[in-house]
Amino acid sequence: MKINEWKNKKVFITGGTSGLGRALALQLENVLTQEYPQIIGIQGDISQKENIYPIAGQVQSRLGDVDILFNVASYLGSSPLRLLIDTECKNFEKVLQTNLLGPFRLTKALLPSMLLKGHGLVINISSDAAINPYPKWGAYGVSKAAIDHLSQIFNEELREQGARFLSIDPGDMNTPMHFAAIPNADPTKLRDPRDSANGILGIISKEDFSSVRRSL
């Protein structure tokens, strides 16, 4: 997808109030310039099952059929992070509700219109914690490993109908969530979310879907 083609696309980004989600929204607005529609804000919590269809309904009533869905909203877990054996079940469940079940439900709600049109793209944000077993990142790592596999299965099942899926690891970024996990992290060694957003948009622009999982 060439940059000037974004003007013809309807894009929905979860988690757009901070971090990577906000950077993606602002980068897209910069790409499109003031000639095109501005960002529309929709409030909702994707971790809550009862919020999914109201969110999807608002999206479709205000945007119409979505061409590209970015599932960015994530929850790390309780702070400070804990070993899995010390992680409370309700906290583990909250991580999965936000990072896995929320994106799954929202994707299911928006997919039918993509399939009817014969094209659509879903970007799920992953992490290196999906592959590397970092101590105390257990709940988050499990959720991101699951979103990777969810992306691959969806892609395998629906690509012939025009829906494509990517699971992208944006790298360690200078975001509130990262500092909640590692308060003493050196910000100079962390990627600016705007750079990660540019990298993600670059992957999409190449239209290379040979591999579902990508890392920046």
Structure, described:
This protein is an alpha/beta fold and 216 residues long. It has one domain: NAD(P)-binding Rossmann-like Domain (Rossmann fold, 3-Layer(aba) Sandwich), CATH 3.40.50. The protein has 6 helices and 5 strands. The protein has helices spanning 19-32, 52-63, 89-117, 138-158, 176-181, 193-206, and strands spanning 11-13, 68-71, 120-125, 163-169, 213-215. A 5-stranded parallel beta sheet has the order 1-2-3-4-5, sandwiched between helices. Helix 4 (138-158) links the parallel strand 3 and strand 4 (163-169). The longest helix is centred in the middle third of the chain and has 29 residues, at 89-117. The relative contact order is 0.15. The mean pLDDT is 90.
Short description:
By secondary structure, the protein is α/β, with parallel strands linked by helices. The chain contains six helices and five strands; from the N terminus they run E-H-H-E-H-E-H-E-H-H-E.
What is the CATH superfamily label?
A: NAD(P)-binding Rossmann-like Domain
Number of strands: 5
What is the CATH topology classification name?
A: Rossmann fold
| Helix percentage | 40-55%
- Assembly type of the chains comes to single chain
Beta-strand percentage range: 5-15%
> Low-confidence segments, ≥5 residues, pLDDT <50?
none
What is the 3D shape?
Answer: globular
Total domain count = 1
Largest sheet: 5 strands, parallel
The helix count comes to: 6
CATH architecture label name:
3-Layer(aba) Sandwich
CATH domain class: Alpha Beta
